[in-house]
Amino acid sequence: MEDPQAWLPITESRNGNVATAVFHLLSSGIGIQALLLPVAFATLGWVWGAISLSVAFTWQLYTIWILVQLHEPIPGIRTRYSRYLQLAIAAFGPKLGKLLAIFPVMYLSGSTCIMLIIKGAGVMELLFKLMCEGGATCDAKSLTGAEWFLVFTCMAIALAQRPNLNSIAGFSLVGAISAIGYCALIWALPISKDRPSGVSYDSRKGGSSVAGMFDVLNAIGIIMLAFRGHNLVLEIQGTLPSSLTNPSKRTMWRGVSVSYTIVAMCQFPLAIAGFWAYGNKIPSNGGMLTAFMQFHGRDTSRFVKGLVYLLVVINCLSSFQIYAMPVFDNLEFRYISMKNRRCPWWVRSGFRLFFGGMAFFIAVALPFLPSLAPLVGGITLPLTLAYPCFMWILIKKPHQKGHDAVWCLNLGLGCLGIVLSVLLVVAAARNLAIKGLHASFFKPQ
């Protein structure tokens, strides 16, 4: 009997290579959240901003290494955990594993797609207004917010008809190129121009010690949430071939090494150059994209501004494909479990249309969802920083092999990740309580 794993989108094709792994990792790892990094520097300052960014990068890279190693934890036994939830269940047990992993995994997949609709559609509207030169005529011809959401969703779902994760490697390549492109443009252009008058590098923390502490936590949260894609690492590794002589972890780690070198080359200059160019004038909402258009939009050609907007839209469309894949995989798994046969093409297409419709509906109903990203992102942060460390302890059992230092390191990082998650959730909730949540149900702007 054919292995049911071969019927599911994530594991249907296992003929990937280093290049496809790099494409997927870059497409899922670089996103518009990186444009907020200079906002964190405006609170933390040069020294602590650079230290926090370096620590966050090293920490999340270490947990990626753990996930890569745990994909095939026991050499010679052909057990591959090609989904984060599977590994969590293997480490924590069926009940606790599902309790800890289902929400963050589904949130980081489905909710990311919804936010991509909101952000991508918003930038599409800006691109349209730029092309028709603004004014009353442009506003009369423009679509409503919900219509822009629909346009973006239709484009994303039309592209989402590819059958499996390996088959969207071309989309991930385009997404990676576009992400690198707009990240490079958005920091290179400001430093080539005059800085706005009155730029200061003084910290804009709150006046009181309590307010200052929460501002620092919010800034740390921005840095931590700038690194994404841990919920897709095992899935990407699941597309690679594996054998006793050449296990998938070797190929995957080469892909991680290349891709995260590029991620560092994008995000570190973006944070440093962005803060140098705008200092504490950097807007809290929109980050570098808003700052660039606000301070340098008038002395930048329409072609260059349009190119930046276009690259952002292309990246959102490409990222949608890889972040939606775990949702498609889960829907098809339910079908296969009930029918005990491969999912027909028309059912597969129906699942994609269903998910697209649901994502569009939620985006229209909750257009303020990006405002909740720091809060919910803090809740899901253990999936990136803590759970991999605990899973390493439970599966590898280093303390039983005399590796006490490794056991202490992972236990310490895991506990620190949980504590940091709690603090970031409290800080985000306090920030929402002070500034308020402008909830406009079914009124996308």
Which labels suit this protein?
single chain; 445 residues; mainly alpha; Amino acid/polyamine transporter I; 17 helices
CATH H-tier superfamily: Amino acid/polyamine transporter I
CATH topology (level 3) name: Amino acid/polyamine transporter I
Radius of gyration: 22 Å
Strand content: under 5%
CATH class descriptor:
Mainly Alpha
How many strands?
0
Shape descriptor: globular
Overall pLDDT confidence: 90
Helix content range: over 70%
Organism: Populus tomentosa
Pfam families: Aa_trans
Membrane topology: Multi-pass membrane protein
GO molecular function, one term: symporter activity
TL;DR of this structure?
Keywords: Amino-acid transport, Auxin signaling pathway, Membrane, Symport, Transmembrane, Transmembrane helix, Transport. The chain is mainly α and 445 residues long. 71% of the residues lie in helices and 0% in strands.
Structure report:
There is one protein chain. This protein has a single domain, classed as Up-down Bundle (Amino acid/polyamine transporter I). The chain contains 17 helices and no strands. The model has no long low-confidence stretch (mean pLDDT 90). By secondary structure, it is mainly α. Helix 6 packs across helix 12, helix 6 runs antiparallel to helix 13 and helix 16 packs antiparallel against helix 17. Keywords: Amino-acid transport, Auxin signaling pathway, Membrane, Symport, Transmembrane, Transmembrane helix, Transport. InterPro entries: AA_transpt_TM.
Helix-strand layout with pairing:
Elements: H1 18-29, H2 37-70, H3 84-92, H4 94-131, H5 135-141, H6 145-159, H7 169-191, H8 209-225, H9 230-237, H10 248-278, H11 287-296, H12 302-339, H13 345-365, H14 373-380, H15 382-385, H16 387-396, H17 404-435
